[in-house]
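Memo to structure team: turn this sequence into structure tokens by end of day. - J.P.
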Amino acid sequence: MQKYIYVLVTVVFTLFSGCNQGQHASTEKTKEDKEYLVEIDSLLSTYDTHATAYRDLYIKALYGDKTALKSYSDLMLEVNALDNKLEYLISQKKIASNQLKKYMNLKKKFMQ
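Reply from structure team:
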């Protein structure tokens, strides 16, 4: 009978000691997710700034302003880099739904 109690206590102890490790891992993941959300918010803020500048530069470049053509080209390279980063984060499922919605609305500004 004592062997069964010993085995039962050992099994229960093993189960409960494993539970703490799982909680610690989920806390780490939540902290990592928060860091991604902050990074994505920063990327979206930069993207928004570029979307605002895009319209002005596009009109100036359309009329042949050489300075605007250079700035427009640089801006579009930066936007492409941001797009790549955001698309990667989307593929990794790191982006929140409200952030994805904001990103899609900002992308529309470049198509108008």
